[in-house]
Amino acid sequence: MSLNDTFTSETELHGVSDPIIEIRDAEVVFEMDRGVSRVLDNVNLTVERGEILGIVGESGSGKSMLASAILDAVVDPGILSGSITYYPENGDPIDVLSLSDEELRKLRWESISMVFQGAMTSFNPTMSIRGHFEETLDAHDFDIEEGMERGHQILSDLYLESERVMDSYPHELSGGMRQRALIALSVLLEPDVLVMDEPTAALDLLMQRSILALLESLKEKYDLTMVFITHDLPLVAELSDRLAVMYAFELIEQGPTNEILQNAGHPYTRSLLNATPNLDAPLSEMRPIEGSAPDPVNVPKGCSYHPRCSVANNRCVEADPEYQQITEEHVAACFHCDDAVEAIPLTHDQAVVQEDEP
Amino acid sequence: MSSEEPLLSMEDVEVHFEESTGLFDFRSEPDVVRAVDGVSLDVFEQDVVALVGESGCGKTTLGKTAIGLQRPTGGSVSYRGQDIWNARDGRGDVEIPFGDIRRSLQIIHQDPGSSLNPNRRVMKILEVPLKRWQSQMSAGDRRREVLSMLQEVGMSPPEDYAGRYPHQLSGGEKQRVALVRALLMDPDLILADEAISALDVSLRVEMMDLMLDLQKRYDTSFLFISHDLSNARYFAAHAGGRIGVMYLGQLVEVGPAEQIINDPQHPYTKVLRWATPDLNPGSGGGEPPVRKIDIPDPKNPPSGCRFHTRCPEARETCTKQIPPEYTYDELHTVQCFREDDTHEYWSSQQLEDTDAELFKAADD
User: Where is this region: Disordered (chain B) (predicted)?
Assistant: First the structure.
């Protein structure tokens, strides 16, 4: 099978009919003294218009690198290759990696906007929130008066007193308010896609969940497509339509959220689900994942998960598994999906069954 | 848990911080942040208590007060019957010297990176407490002790880890070093202040298992602080301990872990239960079950029950009266009028101002 064939069949297989971002063969490498560090390895991902896609992975699995790649914002001396295509609602597809600096500047914020982790460091501490809003509008040649009106509206959509927040400096707001102000700023220029990298880390759970609920209504109101990147699987599972799981710089499983939660095919995903503290699962069933994630310079041959995997055999050591189709929209990069389902029972699933029984 | 004398006893503890208003401002009243307000809690031998609550609710301050790092502005903290601050100041009959108390109550900080000296190797860091408290120990014994403890917490080969600098360790490994440092003091109680929050979700269970294992082996008590109810439950339930729920400086509900999770009484505990994501699709989601998303300013806490501004069940009475502590079950207490079936709360007017309405009005 040639590469191109895989792609067409894959697009069909993911059930994505109206893509907004297409990532093909994305790879990021850093040349280091002790070797080549491949921090994004052959990633193929399609984001559908209007969906919320969750990307889950441990720290150091390359998920932030994937976010940077979408905006061609990989830091030097990292080298990004592959192709990233953005499909605007009206007009021709845009090849993100071939844009000039000026075109790229316009694409960011206006079409694809990004919320980074840690709102404190994203804001300029010497500038009021109003200053940030005005500066952003000005830099992109938007009408300031009209834009500020929209700014006030978005802030109150996020349950913030817009006048007070606009007049505040970042340090005068609580962590949760600051993070919401940053989200408001990122949708100010009416982007189509909002990429969020751990937008709720460092906040407590109640605020995280509240922000998630607000994001859902924001998405409906402003017609956004969202990519939500986090290490916190249960958190994003509540919100997202589809999930993509990263391990060792590769996407090892993709599919609709419900299917991943109930019928994950990759042993890593199943272990990750079992390693998550959960209020409903029986206590004795929670198990940490043995071993640790590989070094980017020295990723194991074959399937990169095989040293930690309980169902791995020689085949996994020799060859890197392609995506196996589990259902029409659900794929996992593993030779032993069926064995994994039997070998690693999902603990949270049992809890559901037990609850259902009278 | 035993009914004997508590290891650590806090009675009506208050910690108020005065915010200075500037050098030349003599007239205005200084702002007082009521970080902890009237909390009583006992910790027993080999006990585990998990404190949960939102950021800013005073759980860290309460924890630090418990182990004698923070002087309370009111109430008392005693270790095996000896008031910690009397021992510190040499007031009255001091039965247990402050040095011994200090040594028995240890802490693991939230950020393991900044609690280890970056310029010293692991061995050097871990030798310090032994040099200070067991000065008669020979250098060779000291090194053997450190290496065996590193082995104990799963850092193997220990010789390799002992020679590293903190930046050469992963987050989980740094936290293990901090844990070893606390354990080398042979403490009675360890305060684990968000000790696993900085770790990846997948590593948290492993770290908690390690702490539970050591808790059994060394007969240590733990005061475990977390904002995540599922972690608190995992830790406390495995050790047969309790969960305490804090809101704006007050302990609103305390009880056995599984009871707090499966049969929460205080409306705030129920809100935290909602906020804890689970993996069952379709459950949860939707509007948060609080009337207001943001926590009120602790400088100016609401009158009556402090949760009344956000509580979905709040009524007129809650704005005026402070709920007393009701006993729901053995070891399970709640501060909410809803425990009292005959309270006037039930006949007063429901409060209905919510964020959603407030901002819907702004839309029009």
Answer: 279-306
Question: For residue A182, how far is the Cα from the chain centroid?
Answer: 18
Prediction pTM value:
0.84
Centroid of chain to Cα B67: 11
Q: What pLDDT sits at residue A59?
A: 79
Coil, strand or helix at B351: coil
Could you give the CA distance from residue A241 to residue A250 in angstroms, rounded to a whole number? 20
Note whether ipTM > 0.85 here: no
pLDDT tens digits, residue range A326-339? 888 899 999 998 88
Decide if A283 contacts A310 (C-beta within 8 A): no
For residue B302, CA distances in Å to A78, B34, B115, B306 come to 52, 12, 36, 5
CA A233 to chain centroid, in Å, comes to: 11
As given in the structure block, the two tokens for residue A242 are 């589809």
Which residues, numbered 54 to 83 in chain A, qualify as contacts with chain B under a Cβ-Cβ cut-off of 8 Å? 58-59
Instruction: Report pLDDT digits (tens) over B263-319.
Output: 999 999 999 988 887 776 555 556 778 888 888 888 888 999 999 999 999 999 999
CA–CA gap between residue B9 and residue A347 (Å, rounded): 38
Q: Is residue B247 part of a domain?
A: yes
State which H helix or E strand residue B174 sits in. Answer: helix B171-183
Number of domains in chain B: 1
Report the first-to-last Cα separation within chain A, whole angstroms: 51
Q: Which residue among A58, A280, A288 sits closest to B205, beta carbon to beta carbon?
A: A288
Q: Which helix (H) or strand (E) holds A209?
A: helix A205-222
Note whether A210 contacts B293, CB cutoff 8 Å.
Answer: yes
Cβ separation B205–A286 shorter than 8 A: yes
Q: CA of A65: how far to CAs of A68, A197, A232, B31, B271, in Å?
A: 5, 10, 17, 45, 35
Give yes or no for A232 touching B (CB within 8 A).
yes
Looking at residue B20, its pLDDT comes to 64
The set of residues, in sequence order, having a beta carbon less than 8 Å from that of B300 and lying 6+ positions away, is: none
Residue A337 near chain B (CB below 8 Å) = no
CA angle at A261 for the pair A259 and A265, rounded to the nearest 5°: 70
> Is residue B155 in some structural domain?
no
CB B88 within 8 Å of CB B68: yes
Burial environment of residue B279 by CB neighbours within 10 A (0 to 12, 13 to 18, 19 or more): buried
The residue to which tokens 């995280």 are assigned: A208
- pLDDT band of B164, cuts 50, 70, 90: very high
Report pLDDT digits (tens) over B228-249: 898 999 999 999 999 999 999 9
d(CA A146, nearest CA chain B) in Å:
16
Nearest residue, CB atoms, B278 vs list A207, A239, A278: A278
CATH number at residue B78: 3.40.50.300
> Is residue B196 a part of any domain in this protein?
yes
Mean predicted confidence (pLDDT) in B112-141: 90
Using the Cβ of A176 and the Cβ atoms of chain B, whether some distance falls under 8 Å is answered with yes
**Cα→Cα distances B147→A343, B130, B162, Å:** 37, 13, 7
Q: B203 at the A interface (CB within 8 A)?
A: yes
| DSSP character at residue B221 | E
Q: What is the domain range of residue B223?
A: 8-16+34-119+165-275+294-299
